[in-house]
Amino acid sequence: MEKFNSIERLSFNQITQDKWSMREAVEGCARAQIPWIALWRHKLAEIGLTETRRLVRDAGLRVSSICRGGMFPAATAAIRKERLDDNRRAVEEAAELGAEVVVLVCGPAPDRDIDSARKWVAEGIEQLAPFARSCGVKLGIEPLHPMFAAERSVVVTLGQATSLAEPFSPDQVGVIVDVFHVWWDPELYAQISRASGRILGFHVNDWIVPTPDLLMGRGMMGDGVIELRRIRTAVEDAGYFGPIEVEIFNQALWDQPGDEVLALIKQRYLEHV
Amino acid sequence: MEKFNSIERLSFNQITQDKWSMREAVEGCARAQIPWIALWRHKLAEIGLTETRRLVRDAGLRVSSICRGGMFPAATAAIRKERLDDNRRAVEEAAELGAEVVVLVCGPAPDRDIDSARKWVAEGIEQLAPFARSCGVKLGIEPLHPMFAAERSVVVTLGQATSLAEPFSPDQVGVIVDVFHVWWDPELYAQISRASGRILGFHVNDWIVPTPDLLMGRGMMGDGVIELRRIRTAVEDAGYFGPIEVEIFNQALWDQPGDEVLALIKQRYLEHV
Questions:
Q1: Beta-strand (E) ranges in B91-243?
Q2: Which helix (H) or strand (E) holds A99?
Q3: Which residues have a Cβ under 8 Å from the Cβ of B172 and sit 6 or more positions away?
């Protein structure tokens, strides 16, 4: 099948090689002929928007997404307002860089009250959506794995993310499917189908056994237990044919030379995704 | 409220002090006047069923559950048959010890095929249930946290566990609610309500932040973010008034003197559960 023999949809999420500067990441992708890159804002902040845009354009890369907005819940209205302002900046950065999507990692509760935190997430998205629309940028709600519920996101299932997105037009607010976060879900395929027309990103990596660490234990595609091609097929059946980001938090990968990591990504992507 | 001022429903799950032998755990509970104990089969195996029964009876303890049965999925029919035989022994042990419930930790997939593993779980429960009924023992399906999906259980939500239990009479096959495994679930309270009349056990501990370890990172009640009393109330609204097990896998607790751990459990149970 031709579609499995091409890297034209492959996007390198730069967190996969966090030691690389923005310049190194962009040049690495160009050398490896990887057509897409997903940019993180802490890297962007190091050299600024203008320089980043120049680097990306000169390398002929396209930006699949900006990571990340979100982090909506906070104990006070003042802090929630600050977070919203920061989200607006993320949207502006995405617009400047030609990225269609800002990925929303929605944030943890500031206390034990998870219901209130979930309401703040819904409010935050409602407040951010009109601004994003005016900038031509889409918001992608990424459910995180439930093991991050206390520290990173109270949005933990694809069904929940889709429910948050549904009040909005499907081309304005949608969901991001990251296999690491959703593979375990008994409702996965039903929820991917329900999210048809609303999937704004697809992230791949793997779940390795035994799992060495909550955050830094993700694996390279093919090294774990996730049914990658099955999930990809379901996501395509739901109408998503955009870039496929490789996003792996793994210390061993961070310690390897970046060009070797990119070569391995390309190989495993063709074999397993 | 009187019900929050009593330890009459408190059960000590002996894994919380894994260094203790069966005798030490039983005598520790007796000294602390904790009325219930949950027994693990690896401890039982060390001294045998007869001696365990004698110890428990002499101490005036009641056994809230036997941990654990399950582990149904396996690559070959021969291994699945062995697992079923082992589950029958767990049921017999529960009957001998006067425990109403065998806790089922359903097991991981032997490969990447999580759907087949889930079918084997359903088949295993179907095959085990008549035998359990004939022994007067109930089967409690415990959904584990999704972070254990690859290594311990393909049953990862309360809704999924309840769906597995529903083909059976509610007094024969039910579910175990362990706050650590389910607290993150956006459907938690709806699913507890759905499981009304079918809850066979309630386990408490806490989710600590930052989470130090997947398996050994559980916290003492009150040290984390779980809304313990809210969940307890929901479980009671669903008709469960049986023993409440304290089950904590935590290296720091394992390293403390057992009697101190029991004293702390009693205090935190009264304060937070």
A1: 101-105, 138-141, 173-178, 199-204, 206-207, 218-219
A2: none
A3: B129, B132, B133, B138, B139
Collapsing DSSP states into helix, strand and coil, what is residue A2?
Answer: helix
Asked whether the predicted pLDDT for residue B1 surpasses 90, the reply is: no
- Which residues from B are below 8 Å from A113, CB to CB? 227
**Residue B118 — φ and ψ, nearest 5°?**
-65, -35
In whole angstroms, what is the distance from residue B171 CA to residue B9 CA? Answer: 20
Domains and CATH numbers, chain B: 2-272 (3.20.20.150)
Please give the residue of chain A at the shortest CA–CA distance from B222. A112
Q: Does the pLDDT of residue A1 top 60, yes or no? A: no
Disruptive mutation site among A225, A228, A271 for chain B (greatest number of B CBs within 10 Å): A225
Q: Would the pLDDT of A2 be above 70?
A: no
Query: Residue A133: pLDDT above 70?
Result: yes
pTM: 0.96
B contact test, residue of A106, A112, A191 with most B CBs within 10 A? A112
Q: What is the 8-class DSSP label of residue B184? A: T
Residues in B closer than 8 angstroms to A207, CB to CB, are 149-150
Which one is predicted more confidently, B30 or B215?
A: B30
Residues facing B219 on adjacent strands? B206
Please give the ipTM for the structure prediction: 0.95
Cα atoms found within 13 Å of the Cα of residue A29, Cβ hemisphere only? 32
Q: What pLDDT sits at residue A72?
A: 98
Angle CA(B257)–CA(B260)–CA(B263) in degrees, nearest 5? 155
The predicted pLDDT at position B143 comes to 98
Smallest Cβ distance to B150: which of A147, A186, A209?
A209
Measured torsion, CA atoms of residues A91, A93, A97, A99, in degrees rounded to the nearest 10: -30
- Residue positions counted in chain A: 273
Q: Do A207 and B150 touch (CB under 8 A)?
A: yes
Pairing of strands A101-105, A62-70: parallel
Tell me the percentage of chain A whose pLDDT exceeds 70.
Answer: 99
Q: Do B225 and A118 touch (CB under 8 A)?
A: no
When CB atoms are compared, the residue of A146, A151, A211 closest to B214 is A211
Contacts of B162 in chain A (CB under 8 A): none
Considering chain A, what percentage of its residues have pLDDT values greater than 90? 95
Return the structure tokens found at A60.
């002929």
| Spatial separation of the C-alpha atoms in residues A9 and A64, rounded to whole Å | 10
